[in-house]
Amino acid sequence: MTSGSPENVLFVVMDTVRKDHLGPYGYDRDTTPGLDAFAEEATVFDNAVAPAPWTLPVHASIFTGMYPSRHGADQENPYLEGATTLAQSLSAAGHDTACYSSNAWITPYTHLTDGFDDQDNFFEVMPGDLLSGPLARMWQVLNDNPRLRKLADMIVSAGNTAHEYLSSGEGADSKTPRVIDRTKQFVEDAESGDGDGWFSFINLMDAHLPYHPPEEFREEFAPGVDSNEVCQNSKLYNSGAQEIDDEEWDDIRGLYDAEIAHIDSQLTRLFDWLKETGRWDDTAVVVCADHGELHGEHGLYGHEFGLYDPLVNVPLMVKHPELDADRREDTVELLDLYHTVLDTFDADATATATEEEAVALDPTRSLLSDSYREFDRADDPDPAQQAAPSGETGFIEYSRPVVELKQLEEKAADAGIELDEDSRFYARMRAARRADAKYVRIDRIEDEAYRLDEDPGETENLADSDDEAIDEVEGELAIFETEIGGAWTSAAAGEVSDDSVEEMDEEIQERLQDLGYME
């Protein structure tokens, strides 16, 4: 940190927002006038890479500075365990910390909120007293019993889906205004105390399926579209149980744009308040997405079963006095933001328990450092730094998506469709991505590779070609895989089963019925 570093950090994740639907990235619809203005005083990154295509592992990476294979939080083990978080380190250093989100993966249950002084997920699927009663006991049973633990990710996903409906236009008001209001209150409370600056992390869920935007935004971006009449279940489409024609895709994208516009309006409200109260100049602001979304590209809907660029090449804009208001095309990884925040606060990470691992501040991963992404200068290089010392490559990991797979199988079975187990639906994937090329290793089907500079739509698979850039990123991926314990070269065995729920008591089984997992 230098003397010019701000006292506070506001970290915003726009969940499921793909960058090509934002004004700063050239979108031709006026979805983001607020972010357009923000981009004028921020650094805009064109090649930001997410470490995974979905919420839990991405946030775990941002909060720990670890790749998914290291922190281990995925759909088969939906918990962050054995790692000291960014919030724990900052709180220990005397900073006030808060996390506000309506995403069911970002809760005390998954341990992603460990270390925050204050947190709220605004979760309203069930009454509050139930959260401290049967549901809490159910979660404890799942946690404590290895045979039952595989159900936990299913329950979180079900809660997420239910909550997103209830917290959107068709069920109730969006929770995003409450997230913004709670953030403002936290800032006021933090500055009235004796803390040494504040760190506020917010995740805004509006652009996550299902799309039920507030009426004023729906009328602007999807006039005449009934959100209850379009396909809002990605598993129906991905399984082949339901088709979507071009007109319906246009309607879906219109609703998606309306949700993004609502996010933008609420962020603008927060930014304006920080300016009006004289806090803007003392606050570094990070705005990014954790992952994007597919709307029919590559025959997929949602953010599962692929590592295509609309999912993993995410928007990232950073306002910081040590960074120029500019546009950059160099590769940035979201887990670098862990180090950037530590650097901003002149803090470091120390394990909070003997059995925990803490990632120390690495200047070669801080956006503020003169040695940023000069990985040959790293003191203790991680697998990615060893694989690509030039810093030009980002790495992505996607373990078996058991939650989506279970739901996909159910939708397919209901439609009389049998899914091919040797397909992307059952696959694990890892990728190495440079600005010009990407290589994706897939354990059940053929690998994929694309020249992103010549084929940004990723339409021509060059995995078997002699392309030099493809060969280079594939070689880096091979080193990365070796350093993390080996490539996924054979199909993962085992499946999520409901058989173990018979061990639960009657009240807990009733809660699973409410969530749709038992009849």
Automatic annotation (TrEMBL):
InterPro entries: Alkaline_phosphatase_core_sf, GAG_Ulvan_Degrading_Sulfatases, Sulfatase_N. Pfam families: Sulfatase (PF00884). It comes from Halolamina salina. Residues 8-346 form the Sulfatase N-terminal domain. Residues 374-395, 491-519 are annotated as: Disordered. Gene3D superfamilies: Alkaline Phosphatase, subunit A. This is Sulfatase. Residues 496-508 have a biased composition (Acidic residues).
